[in-house]
């Protein structure tokens, strides 16, 4: 008797524990899992945990869920079973993103083991990176990981392109800071130390001014209201700048992009390299269109990232597995 049929509840909890380490916009954790014993586990998107103003179509919500799906696949492989992924199994219920069944026994490859082992190491970075450069060859590895999930990595290394991207991120961030409704939506997912939560982002998640890097950060602490300009900039510590693109822009493409994102984040984390996210311009349709026209060769941009060695990382809380697994 396999471990799965002997204790299917334990196995599902094991998969869900891996899944919830995934990144999600403002740590909304927009997922829910349904255990089917030795038949597998379902992944559902939870619309109530979405951001109707910043992400009205749920693109970023599905990206986060795609990252959780990659983690389920890795956890199943780690237990020695091939994941059988059925995406959008119910045409009447598109929030049911995937069912992952237990396939034949298999031995995980060293690479699958390495990615699984990186689940606990991966955290989102905020602010400038250390001067230490990411390892040579990392970008090629990431390109390959992303490709395997059906997406493309676009490296922004040309200085004019970087400047253009910085302007678009700036414009996206300004839109968030000046639009009271968008700012309120983000504030609703931000908490103060005195009132900790198991979802959302602590206001002090980035200890430095959000404008101290060449790509502007989200102003979770509301610092720019008090200090409109940063005391100092670290332009040389931007790190590698990459965009994730897909050929299509529908639910299936977003779910693929989420898996590609997590795969590259874990590959990077295995080298001690973390990602800072700058998705503000992707939430403003005309800015996203500009990125598509000028920086991703017509592909739909799904993610804007900087990669490097952060001075420190912080592990953000997650809702307990018992709250997300039914
Ligand atoms: C689709 C998506 C968009 C994100 N956009 C941003 C962003 O613009 N700025 C940011 O600081 N973090 C962004 N994040 C990262 C989340 O804030 C982070 O994943 C979450 O707070 C949980 O923290 P962790 O990744 O360290 O576990 C994004 C994550 C996802 C999946």
Notable traits:
single chain, 326 residues, alpha+beta, NADH Oxidase, 2 domains, 4-stranded antiparallel beta sheet, 10 strands, 37% helix, binds flavin mononucleotide
Strand order of the largest sheet: 1-2-4-3
Fraction in helix: 25-40%
Major β-sheet profile: 4 strands, antiparallel
CATH topology of the largest domain: NADH Oxidase
Determine the CATH superfamily of the largest domain. Answer: NADH Oxidase
How many helices? The count is 11
Label the overall shape.
globular
Please explain how this structure is put together.
Helices cover 37% and strands 17% of the residues. With 326 residues, the chain is of the alpha+beta class. The chain has a 4-stranded antiparallel β-sheet with strand order 1-2-4-3, covered by helices on one side. The longest helix has 20 residues, at 59-78. The mean pLDDT is 95. The protein binds flavin mononucleotide. Flavin mononucleotide is lined by residues 23-27, 60, 63-64, 123-124, 126, 201, 217-218, 277-280, 316.
Topology:
Layout: H1 3-6, H2 8-19, E1 31-35, E2 41-45, H3 59-78, E3 81-87, E4 96-105, H4 110-117, H5 138-148, E5 152-155, H6 159-178, H7 180-187, E6 190-191, E7 201-202, H8 223-226, E8 240-246, H9 251-270, E9 274-277, H10 285-294, E10 300-308, H11 321-324
Parallel strand pairs: 6-7
Antiparallel strand pairs: 1-2, 2-4, 3-4, 5-8, 8-10, 9-10
This protein binds flavin mononucleotide.
């Amino acid at each position: 008797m396999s471990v799965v049929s002997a204790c299917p509840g334990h196995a599902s909890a094991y998969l869900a524990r891996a899944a919830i380490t995934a990144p999600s916009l403002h740590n909304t954790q927009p997922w829910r899992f349904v255990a089917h014993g030795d038949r597998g586990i379902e992944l559902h998107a939870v619309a109530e945990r979405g951001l109707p103003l910043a992400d009205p179509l749920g693109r970023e919500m599905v990206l986060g869920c795609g990252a959780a799906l990659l983690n389920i696949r890795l956890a199943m492989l780690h237990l020695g079973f091939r994941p059988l992924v059925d995406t959008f199994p119910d045409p009447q219920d598109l929030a049911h993103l995937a069912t992952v069944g237990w396939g034949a026994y298999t031995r995980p490859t060293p690479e699958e083991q390495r990615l699984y082992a990186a689940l606990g190491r991966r955290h989102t970075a905020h602010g400038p990176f250390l001067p230490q450069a990411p390892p040579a060859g990392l970008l090629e590895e990431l390109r390959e990981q992303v490709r395997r999930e059906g997406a493309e990595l676009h490296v922004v290394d040309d200085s004019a392109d970087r400047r253009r991207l910085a302007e678009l991120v700036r414009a996206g961030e300004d839109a968030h800071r000046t639009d009271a409704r968008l700012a309120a939506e983000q504030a609703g997912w931000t908490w103060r130390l005195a009132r900790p939560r198991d979802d959302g982002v602590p206001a002090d998640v980035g200890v430095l001014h959000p404008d101290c890097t060449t790509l502007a950060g989200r102003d979770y602490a509301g610092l720019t209201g008090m200090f409109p300009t940063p005391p100092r900039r670290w332009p040389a510590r931007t790190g590698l700048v990459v965009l994730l693109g897909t050929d299509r822009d529908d639910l299936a493409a977003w779910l693929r992009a989420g898996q590609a994102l997590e795969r590259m984040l874990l590959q990077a984390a295995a080298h001690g390299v973390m990602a800072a996210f700058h998705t503000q311009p992707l939430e403003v349709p005309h800015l996203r269109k500009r990125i598509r026209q000028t920086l991703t060769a017509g592909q739909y941009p799904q993610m804007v990232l900087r990669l490097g060695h952060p001075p420190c990382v912080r592990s953000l809380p997650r809702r307990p597995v018992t709250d997300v697994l039914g």
